[in-house]
Structures are given as structure tokens and as C-alpha cells.
């Protein structure tokens, strides 16, 4: 393992990959059911059916386990849409976020990790890496819209993508309700309108 790597972030294969999948699934279950404060490596090992020493040796600490869980979620995320229209691409992005936050397990998991990131710096860093990866994946939608002349040159693609998901997360975290289809539609339309108006020009 590279000495600069976060524990658990080097990708394994074979039986090690199966162990990783089992442990990360168990960790996600605990986060969704009980929150970050109750995430215990020994409990995760028991749920996953693997030895405690395996978990401690590979991930080292809870923060390393959460970092790897978020890395896996990036790997499994849906690639960006290419509909030929910025608005439709942003609608696809908004609906992906909506489905994630409305999922009983995924929505609870994200709430737990976001809450933990407010006081655990390693978790905060892992969460930032997760969102950086997702924003980077979807940024080409805006770059293509610039090339088509839909939005002004100099528009910041990453800021447009962040503008789509921000109100959906805000709704979940402030009023405790996952966003519905209307909220997703509104978020996509607002971001597209702002982009066309030059709001996100650097």
C-alpha cells in the first residue's frame, strides 16, 4: 500500500475483494441503522462474518472504513447523462440525487456521514473526495453545453452541478424530508436558468 493512501482505499481482488464487499455492506448497514457514533469495527466484523483482526489490519480505524465505503459508492455511481440538452442532463442528475436520498438505506447513510463530517476531520475529507468525484463526473454536461452555445463561455461546470444537488440536500437536512420529483425538477431548472443567465461565469 502507498504510505500516502487512506486505509482501505487500495483496491483488492479475489477473496480479498469479497471480504471488502461484505465489510463495507455491513458498515453501511450500521451507519444507516444506528449512525456514525455506533460504528464499531468489531461489530462490523461480526456482521460481515470476518475476523476482527482482518478489519483492524485493513482499515485501521472507523474513519478509514468510512473513507473506503464512500470510495466504493463513487465506483458504483451512475455515469453522467448525455441527452444533448443541459436542462435534461441536469434533470437526470437531480433525479439521481433524489433517488439516492429517498432510498431508506442510502438516505440514512448519507445523513449519518454528513453529521459525522461536522466533527470528524478524516470523515469530512473522505466526504469531500466523494463529492469532488461525483461533481467531476457530471461536469462534462456543462462543458458540452458551453460548446453548444447553451450557456456562456467561462461558466464554471462544477458550480452548476453543485447548484443542482445543494437544495436537495438542504431539504433533507433542514426539514428532514427527502426531496420529491417536484423538488428535483425545480433544482434542475433553477441551475439551468442560472447557467444560461451567466450566474456561474467565473
UniProtKB/TrEMBL annotation:
Keywords, in A-Z order: DNA-binding, Transcription, Transcription regulation
Which Pfam families does the record cross-reference, listed alphabetically? Answer: TetR_C_11, TetR_N
Does the keyword field hold Transcription?
A: yes
Where do the coiled-coil regions begin and end? Answer: none
Keyword Thylakoid assigned: no
Question: Which Gene3D superfamilies does the UniProt record give?
Answer: Homeodomain-like, Tetracycline Repressor, domain 2
Query: Which residues are in the HTH tetR-type domain?
Result: 17-77
What molecular functions are annotated in GO for this chain? DNA-binding transcription factor activity; transcription cis-regulatory region binding
What InterPro entries does the annotation carry? Homeodomain-like_sf, HTH-type_TetR-like_transc_reg, HTH_TetR, Tet_transcr_reg_TetR-rel_C_sf, TetR_C
Summarize which parts of the chain are annotated to bind DNA, as ranges.
40-59
UniProt name for this protein:
TetR family transcriptional regulator
